[in-house]
Design brief:
Radius of gyration: 12 Å
Number of domains: 1
Number of helices: 4
Order of helices and strands: HHHH
Shape: globular
Structural class: mainly alpha
Helix content: 55-70%
Strand content: under 5%
Number of strands: 0
Length: 84
Amino acid sequence: MKDFPHRITIRLKYGPAMGITSPHEAAEYFEACVRHTMSHGRTREEAEKVEKMNLGYFAGYYGGKTRERVERLFGERGHEGERP
């Protein structure tokens, strides 16, 4: 997968992920997301956490099936872990 442009909208970055159904494609897409966030000065660990949260949050705007698939493929449930 090609890298994202340095400046990109949330919709353009995460929208395509909502249609992914293959674990292999999800892994490639996630890696591209992580590389993009790292290009903004984050460590890999920080970038992975940010991307999982962002994908989970963005999926919350879609129907239940899409949200559940994104959670399964990318391993996140939005900001659940961040609540006090």
